Amino acid sequence: MRARRIGLLGGSFNPAHGGHRRISLFAAETLGLDEVWWLVSPGNPLKPRAGMAPLAARVKSAIRQARRAPIRVTAIERELGTRYTVDTLRALIRRYPDREFVWLMGADNLAQFHQWKDWRGIARAMPIAVIARPGYDGAAFASPAMAWLRRHRVEAAEFRNRGDWSAPSLVTLRFDPDPRSATAIRRADPEWAGRYSQVPPRDQLTFRRIVPISRGERVQAP
């Protein structure tokens, strides 16, 4: 039997919305994934901390969006104690050796991927699937990271049918643009996090309650 295939989608999810769900389900169907794990980041230094809702509220919003779908919501990065994405992914590979992972990212992240710590290490750790995002494709495909990754491009159908995944591999996915964004939701509803401030949520991967850290939540770097 082949290993279970998992897509990893990282982000602030501030808040999670239907666009996250839609791209996750699209990627799962196109790539033949068994599940998608949403890695809700404790924090991201490339984004302003002002306006960042507490981790528990962001996780609860993600759980709500992921219901009745093959999506698990987790804040496991806080438990792993990893600061950088490359370290998180390596830790997940060690912790779940019976899974095959693919890193999912939007074209906006590909545009700045070369600024991430050891981004080539990320590409060598697992395949990467890039999902088109309106307004970012030009910068993404002209980026320094794409210049290196281009030689490793694989068609989605070929990737899905591979018996064993290998890295580096790059798959580009296109589907109808989704106009929803967390920024627009926050502007329209600045108090959204208050609706998720009751019982701390349970992590869907570790099954632990996500409670605030007394000295502030650790910052997660790309």
TrEMBL record:
The protein's Enzyme Commission number: 2.7.7.18
Pfam family, one: CTP_transf_like
Pathway annotation: Cofactor biosynthesis; NAD(+) biosynthesis; deamido-NAD(+) from nicotinate D-ribonucleotide: step 1/1
Enzyme class: transferase
GO MF annotation terms: ATP binding; nicotinate-nucleotide adenylyltransferase activity
GO BP terms in the entry: NAD+ biosynthetic process
Reactions performed catalytically: nicotinate beta-D-ribonucleotide + ATP + H(+) = deamido-NAD(+) + diphosphate
UniProt xrefs under Gene3D superfamilies: HUPs
Keyword Nucleotide-binding among UniProt keywords: yes
InterPro entries recorded: Cyt_trans-like, NadD/NMNAT, Rossmann-like_a/b/a_fold
Record domain Cytidyltransferase-like: where: 8-187
Keywords: ATP-binding, NAD, Nucleotide-binding, Nucleotidyltransferase, Pyridine nucleotide biosynthesis, Transferase
HAMAP family named in the record: NaMN_adenylyltr
Functional note: Catalyzes the reversible adenylation of nicotinate mononucleotide (NaMN) to nicotinic acid adenine dinucleotide (NaAD).
NCBIfam families registered for this protein in UniProt: PRK00071.2-2
Family: Belongs to the NadD family.
Name the UniProt record assigns to this protein: Probable nicotinate-nucleotide adenylyltransferase
Species of the source: Pelagerythrobacter aerophilus
Upper classification of the organism: Bacteria, Pseudomonadati, Pseudomonadota, Alphaproteobacteria, Sphingomonadales
